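Sanity check. The docking grid for NAP depends on where the pocket ends up, so I'm generating a full predicted complex first rather than guessing from homology. Inputs follow.
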Amino acid sequence: MKPLILTSANGTPASKYSFGTMQFGGKADKKESQKLFEASRDAGLNFFDTAYGYTDGLSETYLGEFTAKERDNLVVATKCAPVAGAASTYIRTQLDESRKRLKTDVIDVLYLHKWDDSTSLEETFSTLAELQEQGLFRYLGVSNFSAWQTMKAANIAEKHGVRIDILEPMYNLVKRQVEVEILPMASSEGFNVAPYSPLGGGLLTGKYSNGLGGRLAENKTYNARYNNDWMHETARKLSEIAGKIDVSAATLAVAWVARNPAITHPIISARSVEQLAPSIDAITYELSDELYGEISAATRAPAPATDRSEDS
Ligand SMILES: NC(=O)c1ccc[n+]([C@@H]2O[C@H](COP(=O)([O-])OP(=O)(O)OC[C@H]3O[C@@H](n4cnc5c(N)ncnc54)[C@H](OP(=O)(O)O)[C@@H]3O)[C@@H](O)[C@H]2O)c1
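Predicted complex below; grid placement will be based on this.
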């Protein structure tokens, strides 16, 4: 099944690449955030990703200001239920707050940020169905769900007349778990896929091999996520490949993610316009089959979904 073509309110198709605003109001102050927004628009992007839970609401607030003058041309995605859970009351209050911060009556894409074990899917999806029916958001997504969680949720959503349109999983050269179940499921079921962290939070730029600092040094969660020697070795190998052909490692890392046919909307990001440049270069970079193979061989592939694979 083919994924739905996502459009803005005035029918403009969502750009293939999306810009993630998790740094707005955090590592990027308001002025730099605006420059990042404008650089993304100049590069042809009209799809922006934020979340209720980012930077105490500043990410949504800034994005709301920047998007106001051309809101109908843009596709704005936000996420609810990050920590508090997907109970009806949280979804309703967070969606209301997100709409206020984003200065919009209608959110284009609303994701559940995480799976919530403590709330029934019936409660979550009947609430979402009602809110979509009221026209408060247009497309529905789930983020960080496993494949079985997605399918279970999709079945219950369908019972309430709602469809899951898009998934937002982590995906990069050293985080390839989605290749096992999520991406084949997305191709089979027609889910759009907007993967996050194509640079592994900065690891794949190669800067840590060069002794430079950044998110992995500053943020405990990211440090733990990428604290494996083999991942750093992959980053080093990617930089070596990039150096040989005089292309930025970041460009190759993003182009590698975007190359997977199940990926519909890779989310790029940065804390400054200068950092963003190589990710924007990936938009037009043509990754050959040979180079794709060489880059893939620089990392570990995940085990297949079933153990009975030797005779297939
Ligand atoms: N659904 C979810 O749970 C979830 C989770 C994470 C992200 N997201 C979304 O996906 C978006 C992208 O995720 P991400 O920020 O993790 O993406 P990423 O592309 O893997 O990492 C971006 C970070 O890498 C570093 N970087 C980028 N370009 C660089 C360059 N040229 N040189 C050196 N360092 C560079 C910067 O961090 P430093 O300078 O600080 O090192 C930058 O903030 C987010 O904005 C957010 O919208 C969603």
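Relevant for the grid: Residues 52 and 117 are 20 Å apart (CA to CA).
Also worth noting: The pocket of NAP is lined by residues 20-23, 27, 49, 143-144, 168, 196-202, 205, 207, 214-215, 250, 267-271, 275, 278 (CB under 6 Å).
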